[in-house]
Automatic annotation (TrEMBL):
Localization per record: Membrane
UniProt keyword annotation of GTP-binding present: no
Name assigned to this protein: Trichome birefringence-like N-terminal domain-containing protein
Pfam families: PC-Esterase, PMR5N
Bilayer topology: Single-pass membrane protein
Signal peptide: 1-29
Protein's UniProt keywords contain Protein biosynthesis: no
Cellular component terms (Gene Ontology): membrane
InterPro entries associated with the record: TBL, TBL_C, TBL_N
PANTHER family: PROTEIN TRICHOME BIREFRINGENCE-LIKE 41, PROTEIN TRICHOME BIREFRINGENCE-LIKE 9-RELATED
Domain Trichome birefringence-like N-terminal residues, every copy: 29-81
Trichome birefringence-like C-terminal domain segment(s): 82-347
Amino acid sequence: MGSTDNAISYASALVLALFLLPLLHEAEGCDMFTGRWVEDASYPLYDPSTCPFIRREFACKRNGRPDLSYPTFRWQPKGCKLARFNGVKFLEKNKGKKIMFVGDSLSLNQWQSLTCMLHSSVPNSPYNITTQGSITTFRFQEYGVELKLDRNVYLVDIVREKIGRVLKLDSINDGHNWSEMDTLIFNTWHWWNRRGPSQPWDYIQVGSKVTKDMDRVAAFETALGTWGKWVDTVVDTQKTKVFFQGISPSHYKGALWGEPRAKSCAKQKEPLLGTSYPGGLPAEVGVLKRALRKISKPVTLLDITMLSLLRKDGHPSIYGLGGRTGNDCSHWCLSGVPDTWNEILYNYMA
């Protein structure tokens, strides 16, 4: 009898282990950011025409993009499988909660993606969109879920003073906008190299030192350090989950993906199907990771750079805001790559 009981016990334990293994692997051992893009007939997760609120710069299909295979690729991590996004489960789990994206137009891109993923899951559920100051709120009224966007491109402050507009690398006064949130997703990078008329500041300040300019990567790292100190000092991570979106790449140099004659993402119709990018990761990714390691409290990096680098086909190009006079290889079509960022976010939040 003893050996039989042991056999039954072993069999039961084995069944339980096999049941739990995918859950443990997903939560503890899954590298969601190393993998490849595979075609999947069940994608995209939504038809963008069902979301009238998608802004023109992301509405590639509405703007006349003729090739429509780009949304049909699914991200497949190397050693595990992402749980498919379920909008109803997301809304039920986050009932009454506030989720905020803070950053530049790439945050807008991801925020718009998530609002459409959710709206298409509950198309008859009422919603409203309101804007107050720099903050736009998309509220699912039935669930009391608020998806907020704070357009803050540097995370640190720009202050108008007698000498002009000063970018203060060691000051965050807008942090009061980010309090009382249940989830925060931050992002900054794309504006750090802006110069000329599109640069929204005249001077840059660290401590008491004011200069006309400085090394932009060093400024980026200093600002990340200020933001990290803000997280450690202000955020109660027992109540608020903190994520950083990662560095979203652009595609303007074909030599970086093995097409030296390509000067942009124009006419790109399929992703790179391998697991690595010939041009490697941009240097700012290392800067970001170094800054995140200095933060004591838990901050989860959505390390979306490599998977996005592989998607040279995913940008609006001439089917964005500027039409044929523009060529946007920085933002992303919706539906498209940001939906995968949000599927990964969903897997972390599940």
